[in-house]
From TrEMBL:
UniProt xrefs under SMART domains: HTH_ARAC (SM00342)
Keyword DNA-binding found: yes
UniProt keyword annotations, A-Z: DNA-binding, Transcription, Transcription regulation
Annotated GO MF terms: DNA-binding transcription factor activity; sequence-specific DNA binding
Name of a matching Pfam family: HTH_18
Stated name of the protein: Regulatory protein PchR
Gene3D superfamilies: Homeodomain-like
Domain HTH araC/xylS-type: 223-321
């Protein structure tokens, strides 16, 4: 990513921009915000938006934020005993883990897995709307993942970009949309955080295997294939057409795509269609039929069936709950 050459970032003080208010009683735009224990209010001269923190038990918490900065802005924050992952729902964030290092870009396709015993992190935001969910876990929980992994010592800092899969997206959506009561919701979130951690760590480990069995060019081709299918979901190319566009044969495309993303090309496309459909329905400006056509379905009945399989409710019910949350 080469944004540094064309974008000037304004340094901001995180203490003055983000103000914490504990004892928050809930009442946000999603169920995670409803059960937040702390609300984060922002300096309107710097950005618009809000954040919520849900403390589940000591060392285990979830943070959700929805921010739009007035100009490209960076923050530097000291981190100690910081273990978990960050996922972007909308927009993107750049993270630098040390001065002069290459930035790690987190967006809806790439999560950040982190083990930070101590260090300084720089976060860079542009002026687009950025929604992200971040979770931290106790050191003991993170350490258990490394016990049988001699190739990755737990004693050193680790920041790794990890591909976001269907299972991860579904897990995040369930965290944001759970309708359980408060006490049950807390236990539910603890389980979902542990599930997310396991899924992201598994994908990170899979990435190591992939890199050993695939050339850098093949990896680039598969990433390009995923981008094409997502950008052209309304009228996607066939596998033969896609393989010609990215420059590898269709057999290698199918095999390597399954290795990288853990699902077939069309399984990936189906997931991305449902995610996009959920976003459009939540905005509430389009009819169900218009959303179906926008994500590549000719027949609204087929779309509704697939949507219900993914979200356990009809498109109309999903839109009603999102636009008018109860």
């Amino acid at each position: 990513m080469h944004r540094d050459t064309i974008m000037a970032y304004v340094e901001s003080n995180i203490e003055s921009t983000f103000k914490m208010f504990t004892g928050y009683e809930g009442g946000g735009e999603n169920r995670l915000a409803d059960y937040a224990t702390t609300k984060v209010e922002l300096d309107e001269n710097v950005c618009l938006g809000h954040g919520y923190i849900v403390e589940l038990y000591p060392g285990l918490n979830i943070t959700y934020s929805d921010v739009t900065f007035n100009q490209p802005t960076s923050f530097t924050e000291s981190a100690k005993d910081y273990y978990g992952a960050c996922l972007v729902i909308e927009g993107c964030v750049e993270v630098r883990v040390s001065q002069g290092s290459e930035p790690i870009t987190i967006d809806k396709n790439k999560a950040l897995f982190f083990v930070c015993h101590e260090g300084e992190l720089e976060f860079r935001y542009d002026t687009s709307c950025t929604k992200l969910i971040n979770f931290c876990v106790p050191q003991s929980m993170m350490k258990t993942l490394f016990e049988d992994d001699t190739g990755r010592p737990f004693s050193i800092n680790l920041f790794e970009s990890v591909s976001v899969t269907n299972d991860i997206i579904k897990n995040v959506d369930e965290i944001l949309c759970s309708k359980l009561g408060k006490s049950a919701h807390s236990l539910y979130l603890q389980g979902k955080v542990m599930e997310l951690l396991a899924l992201i760590y598994h994908n990170m480990r899979q990435k190591v295997t992939v890199c050993c069995s695939m050339t850098p060019r093949d990896m680039d081709c598969i990433q390009l294939a995923a981008k094409i299918m997502e950008e052209q979901m309304e009228s996607p190319p066939s596998l033969i057409e896609l393989s010609r566009q990215i420059g590898i044969n269709d057999n290698k495309l199918k095999r390597n795509f399954k290795i990288v993303f853990g699902e077939t090309v069309y399984g990936f496309l189906s997931n991305k269609r449902m995610v996009k459909a959920g976003e459009l329905l939540a905005i509430g400006e389009l009819s169900v039929q218009e959303v179906a056509h926008r994500v590549g379905f000719k027949h609204v009945g087929h779309f509704s069936k697939k949507f219900k399989e993914q979200y356990m409710c009809s498109p109309k019910q999903y839109r009603r709950k999102s636009v008018h949350p109860v």
